[in-house]
Amino acid sequence: SLKSGHLREGLEPSRGAEPAAAAAAETAEAKGEGKVLVCARCHSLRHYGHVKHPDAERLLPDFDFVAAVGPRLASPSGARSLVLLLADASDFDGSFPRAVARLVAAAGEAHRKDWKHGAPANLPRALLVVTKLDLLPTPSLSPDDVHAWAHARARAGAGADLRLAGVHLVSAARGWGVRDLLDHVRELTGARGNVWAVGARNVGKSTLLNAIAKCSGVVGRPTLTEAPVPGTTLDVIKVDGVLGAQAKLFDTPGLLHGHQLTSRLTSEEMKLVQVRKEMRPRTYRIKTGQSIHIGGLVRLDVEELTVGSIYVTVWASPLLPLHMGKTENAATMIKEHFGLQLQPPIGQDRVKELGKWVRKQFKVSGNSWDTNSKDIAIAGLGWFGVGLKGEAVLGLWTYDGVDVISRSSLV
Ligand code: GDP
User: Fold this and answer.
1) In 159-263, where does DSSP find H-type helix?
2) How far apart are the first and last CA of the chain?
3) Assign residue 150 a region: left if phi > 0, alpha if psi is -120 to 50, beta otherwise?
4) Within 13 Å and on the Cβ side, how many CA atoms surround 270?
5) Residues contacting residue 182 through CB under 8 Å, at least 6 positions apart
6) CA of residue 216 to ligand 1 center, whole Å
7) How far apart are CA 123 and CA 103, in angstroms?
8) Which regions of the chain carry the CATH code 3.40.50.300?
9) Ligand 1 midpoint to CA 131 (Å)
10) Domain 65-257, what architecture?
11) pLDDT, tens digit, for every residue of 143-197?
12) 3-class secondary structure, 137
């Protein structure tokens, strides 16, 4: 199968990669090979033919799409680029590849100033692809609403005038929307386009590309370019045959988003956090001075209310333990229960490793208890849906550097 990874040498390791890279560098030095730095995964691949470290994903440096692919997006040869911006339905804002979206938006803006006779032929275009749609409570959602919501979130994420050629809601696992996506990609690229699939790690890119390849009848034929080691894509790779003889589909290594909580979890912790089945809401009625914990990862405090209580719905993996209690006991919870009853983190030692515990404040107002007024989303984890009649001041605690945003509610 297609699976993203990376191969880099002679580069400084990025944040989080130091221990592994240092170990590899020591090996290199012991062999008298000078100062070549190789990450743990590359070292394992080269020397053992497989990845040994169970947390290799977490330790890998990031793939810099903007530097690696950016210059090729506006191809002087005239072959038009189409970027597939993948975002996970269960973690839209955290997984959305915003740096790449910004690049596409900026290319458009730069060119639009000079337009006289319409868009230049080599201006890159983008399709938003929302993956893992089956994880949302689809029976209670209207596809049109999700479509509009995703479009708005993508524009907010790009922070610029991102013009999308379309929005596709897909589930590669269920085969939803894959044929439509493939048809649209073929229509947009014509005979000679380049298509770049871009997404954060675990967004479901490999699964989707395999589903697209299968849909186009490629699987089983030797034209599908696979990485030499199963389970890894070592660099940008070309997936042959899917789009016809001339148009090219490129898979890129999964982006590492430091702002996603998942980027700092171990593989064991990830198992508790990753959503695998349709999300089920867990709702609490909660008053001023009360807090909800999601494992030892996040805490929501109700600091002030203009009404008696509000409804807070947790949308996250069902394997994560929730705890509601008084805010005044919060410090004790951290000291005595984080890493033990409240996992992840798994083990009390991991609490400090995850970083500094910091608070962000949100003011939320609403006029109904039946529908959620706002979501407070935590990148890489899930979100709180808040329903209230009146106004609330909420404090959201999590580890420093994890993105927390307030957005219009999805469900
Ligand atoms: P990549 O890192 O972006 O290539 O992601 P993968 O394709 O390896 O998928 C990451 C995880 O998400 C795996 O556990 C997949 O089984 C799961 N996954 C991928 N696509 C879907 C989907 O459409 N629905 C669901 N429920 N899970 C999916």
Assistant:
1) 178-189, 205-215
2) 33
3) alpha
4) 14
5) 212, 215, 216, 242
6) 20
7) 12
8) 65-257
9) 8
10) 3-Layer(aba) Sandwich (3.40)
11) 999 999 999 999 999 987 899 999 999 999 999 999 999 999 999 988 788 899 9
12) coil
Backbone φ and ψ of 150, nearest 5°: -65, -40
Q: Using CA positions, which residue lies closest to atom 10 of ligand 1? A: 202
Residue type, 59: L
The rounded Å distance from CA 377 to ligand 1 centre is 20
CA of residue 88 to ligand 1 center, whole Å: 9
Answer whether 202 contacts ligand 1 (Cβ < 6 A): yes
Q: Does the C-beta of 127 come closer than 6 Å to ligand 1?
A: no
Query: Residue 270, Cβ neighbours under 10 Å: how many?
Result: 19
- Cα 249 to chain centroid, rounded: 21
Supply the residue whose CA is at minimum distance from atom 18 of ligand 1. Answer: 204
Interstrand relation of 194-198 and 81-88 (parallel, antiparallel or unpaired): parallel
204 CB under 6 A from ligand 1?
yes
Task: Kindly state if the Cβ of 171 falls inside 6 Å of ligand 1.
Answer: yes
In the DSSP assignment, the letter for residue 378 is E
| Tokens representing residue 257 in the block | 């988003």
Ligand 1 pocket test, pick from 202, 226, 250, 275 with the greatest ligand atom count within 8 Å of Cβ, gives 202
326-370 residue pLDDT tens: 999 999 999 999 999 999 999 999 999 999 999 999 999 998 877
Query: Which among 158, 169, 149, 162 has a CA at the least distance from the CA of 408?
Result: 149
Hey, whose CA ends up nearest to atom 15 of ligand 1?
A: 204
6 lines ligand 1 (CB under 6 A): no
